[in-house]
Design brief:
The chain is of the alpha/beta class and 383 residues long. It folds into 3 domains: 5-84, 434 Repressor (Amino-terminal Domain); 91-138, no CATH class; 157-307 and 362-374, no CATH class. The chain contains 17 helices and 5 strands. It has a 5-stranded mixed beta sheet with strand order 4-2-3-1-5, with helices on both faces. It is elongated, with a radius of gyration of 33 Å.
Length: 383
C-alpha cells in the first residue's frame, strides 16, 4: 500500500486511518495482533512510542511497510525534542575547541588551570586567559574569528596554541633594544661557537643582548613545528624553537633559519608569523610567492651557516659516494665547526639518514638551562 507520510504526524494517526478504512475498532485490531488493548490505545493516542516488533506486526496486518511506522515515530520524537530542547549557542564553539585543540595535552603541560578535560568550567576560563580573550567565541583558532594579530597565520589549532605559548613567555622577557646591526653581530658570535656543543649555552645570552626574545617550548603532539619568528609591537623580534630533534645540526640550522627571518624583517609588514614546520623538508605552510622566497632564502642562509655551500659541494664532489670518518673530521676542522654539522648536511644532501649519526650529538640539556624553556617536565612561569 502506498502511504504519503506527510499526511500523518504520528504512527498512531496512520493506524487510526487504516482502522477507519477497514471499519475496525481498536479492540478488533488488538485481538488480530494478539496484543494488549490498553497498550495499543496509547500508541494510537500518541502516548506510547511504537517499537520495531509492533511495526512488523502492523506490516503483516495492513500491508504497510514497517519502516513507515518507525519513520513517523522518529520524526515525531525529533519534533518533540526540538520543542523541548534548550539551545546552547556555545555548544558549537565548544565542539570546535575541544575537538581541534589538544586540550588534554595543554592541561598536562600546565598551560590550562584545570584538573582534566571534564573540568569544563575551568578549562574554558583558562582557554580565554591563554588566548587573551573575554569569550570563547573570540578565540582565534575558530573559523569565524577573522581578526588578525601579530601571530595571525594559517596553522592547525595545536600549532596556534604553541605559538601563543611562545608569545606569552616572550612578552615577559627583558632584552636589549633591537637593531639590525645587533642581529648581524649575534650571527657572527654564534658562528664562532659552532666548533663545540658546550659553547652553545651562550646562545640565549647573545640573542638577548641583540634584542631578540628567544624561547624554547616543547612541541605539542603531531604539530611538527621546528620554529617560528614573529614581531611584538613591530619593534621586538621573537624566535621560538621546539628542539623536537635534539641534535646539534638541527638546532644550528633552525636557529640560523629564524635569524634570517629576523635579519630580513620577514613577517613584520604582513603581521604574519613565519611558522616553520618540518623545516629541512621545506614543508612550510605558505602559498604566497613572496613568503616562498623568504623561506628559500632562510634555508640557504641556514645551510651556508652550518657549512659554507661551496666547501660542502666541493667535498661531496670529491668524496662521493664514500665519506670516510677522517675526511668528515678534516673538513670540520677546516671550517671550524663541529663534525655534527658536516654530518647533518651530508644526510640532507645524500638522503642517507642512517649514516654519520655518531656525530649528531644532543644539545638540548646544554642550551635550555640558560633559556626561557617550557616543556620536558618543566613549566615556565608567565604572567
Amino acid at each position: 500500500m502506498n502511504i504519503d507520510l506527510n499526511d500523518y504526524r504520528t504512527p498512531g494517526q496512520l493506524i487510526a486511518f487504516l482502522l477507519e478504512q477497514r471499519g475496525w475498532s481498536q479492540r478488533t485490531l488488538a485481538v488480530v495482533m494478539g496484543t494488549d488493548e490498553t497498550g495499543l490505545n496509547k500508541i494510537v493516542a500518541g502516548k506510547r512510542p511504537i517499537d520495531a516488533k509492533t511495526a512488523l506486526i502492523l506490516e503483516e496486518v495492513f500491508g504497510v511497510e514497517a519502516e513507515n511506522f518507525l519513520k513517523l515515530q522518529k520524526n515525531y520524537d525529533l519534533a518533540v525534542a526540538r520543542i523541548e530542547a534548550r539551545p546552547d549557542p556555545t555548544r558549537k564553539t565548544r565542539a570546535q575547541l575541544y575537538g581541534d585543540l589538544p586540550v588534554a595535552a595543554m592541561i598536562k603541560r600546565g598551560w590550562l588551570d584545570a584538573n582534566d578535560i571534564k573540568d569544563t568550567k575551568n578549562v574554558e576560563s583558562s582557554l580565554c586567559r591563554f588566548f587573551g580573550v573575554n569569550r570563547l567565541e573570540d578565540i582565534e583558532i575558530l573559523s569565524h574569528a577573522a581578526k588578525r594579530t601579530e601571530v595571525s597565520i594559517t596553522a592547525t589549532p595545536a600549532q596556534m596554541a604553541w605559538i601563543y605559548r611562545v608569545k606569552t613567555l616572550a612578552e615577559e622577557m627583558m632584552v636589549a633594544r633591537y637593531s639590525s646591526t645587533g642581529v648581524q653581530t649575534a650571527i657572527k658570535k654564534i658562528q664562532g661557537l659552532l666548533y663545540a656543543p658546550e659553547e652553545l649555552r651562550n646562545v640565549p645570552r647573545i640573542l638577548a643582548e641583540a634584542g631578540i626574545r628567544f624561547v624554547i617550548v616543547e612541541a605539542l603532539p603531531s604539530s611538527k613545528i621546528d620554529g617560528v619568528c614573529f614581531w611584538l609591537n613591530d619593534t621586538s623580534p621573537v624566535i621560538g624553537m621546539t628542539m623536537r630533534f635534539d641534535r646539534i645540526d638541527n638546532f644550528c640550522f633552525v636557529l640560523r633559519h629564524e635569524l634570517e627571518h629576523v635579519l630580513n624583517r620577514d613577517g613584520l609588514d604582513t603581521t604574519t608569523a613565519m611558522l616553520d614546520v618540518d623545516i629541512q623538508n621545506n614543508n612550510h605552510q605558505y602559498e604566497a610567492a613572496e613568503i616562498e622566497q623568504q623561506e628559500r632564502r632562510a634555508n640557504e642562509a641556514a645551510a651556508d651557516f652550518c657549512v659554507p655551500k661551496k666547501m660542502m659541494d666541493a667535498f661531496i664532489s670529491r668524496k662521493a659516494p664514500i665519506f670516510a670518518e677522517r675526511d668528515i673530521i678534516g673538513l670540520s676542522r677546516m671550517v671550524k665547526v663541529h663534525p655534527g654539522l658536516i654530518a647533518g648536511q651530508l644526510q640532507h644532501q645524500t638522503g642517507e639518514y642512517n649514516k654519520f649519526r655518531q656525530h649528531l650529538v644532543p644539545v638540548r640539556e646544554i642550551i635550555t638551562p640558560n633559556a626561557i624553556t617550557d616543556g620536558w617536565g618543566d613549566i615556565a612561569s608567565a604572567g
